[in-house]
Amino acid sequence: MLETLLLSAALATQPNIVVFMVDTLRGDLLQAKTPHLDEFASESLVFPNANSTTPSTRSSAASLFTGVGPMVHGVRHGKTHMQNYPGAMLSAELDKRGYNTLAVVANPNIDPVFGHARGFEEYITLYKRKMEQPVPAAPSDLVSPAQEVVESAAEIAGRAKKPYFLFVLAIDPHAPYGPPGSECQGEQECYRAEVEYVDRWFGWLLQRLPSDAVVVFTSDHGEEFGEHGQWRHGRNVWETSTHIPLMIRCGKKGVVTSRVDLLDLASTILVLGGGTPPEYWPGRDLTKPITTRPVVSLWETWRAVRWEGIKYLWHENKTVVFDLDQDPAETKPFRAAPVDDESLIPALRALGYVE
Question: What is the pLDDT of residues 280-294, one digit of tens each?
Fold first, then answer.
C-alpha cells in the first residue's frame, strides 16, 4: 500500500517529456529563419556546442536511446544494428518510472527491425514516398513530411497516459530537399526552406503540448555542402556532419557553452524523469553545472575527440588538431601530432577509445 502511494505521488510530479529530433539539421541551421525555434530558445537551456555521436541517424538515435556510444551499442556503420544490445534503454528506464513511452518516427533507419523500438509501448512509423519519381523508391525516399509527423505526435500526446515520454523524429530537411509546395531553387535554398517548414510545424506542436512539459529540440547529425569536399552526411566526422542544435525547455534558461553530446541528453532525460542513469552511462545531467569530459564522434575509419575547445581528428593514420573556438569551420589545423594531453588520454582510455 505504501509503495503504491509513493508511486502515485511520484507520477503526479513527474513531467511529460517530449524529444523533437530533426533529421539532418546542422548546428548552424544553414542560417534559416526560425522564429518559433528562436522563441523556444529564449525559454530554454541552449547548448551551442553540441555534437552527435555519429553522422548517421540509426547510430545517433541508438546513442540517445541507450545512453552509450557506438563502440558499446554496436551501430558503428550503416550495416549494423542494436537488436542484440543487452544494456539499459532510456525508454525502458522511463517505463519503470511509470512513463507511457511513445514514439513517432519518419525515417526507416530507426525502424523496429533495428532494435530502436525496444522499451516503447507504442512506436508509430510514418514512411512514404517523399517526392514522386518514376523509379522504384529507395529506403531513403520512404518518409513523411513534418506536418504529418507533428499531427500524429499531437494526436498521440493528446490521448497518452500521464506522465508520458514522447520521441518525435521529423525527417525534413533530409535530401531530397524542398518542402511541400515550395518553389525553392538550389540545394542550400531548398535545405533552408525545409528547415523553415519544420520550424512552423514545431511551433504548431508546441501550442498543443502542456505548458509545463519538458521539451527537447535537437538533431541526429548535420549535413555537408562541400565544405570539406563532400556532400550529404554519413561519410566523416567534420563539424558540418556532427555539430547539432540542442535546446531543453525545463524551467531553466540560459546558454551553456560546454561541449556536450547526445549521451549527455540521454542521462538528462532520465534524471528529469526521476530516474538514475546506470553507472556505465558517461552522460552528464545538463540541467546542473557539469565537468569536462571528452565529446566523441566516430564513423567507420573516422574518429574525433573534443576536449573543451580542442578537437583531435583521426583518419587514415593521420591526426590533425583544431581549435574550434577560433576555427569552427576547421580550415586551419594548428598541430599535426599524436594526442599527448595528460588529462585527455586517461579519459579516452576509460571510454574505450584508446589502448
Answer: 999 999 999 998 888
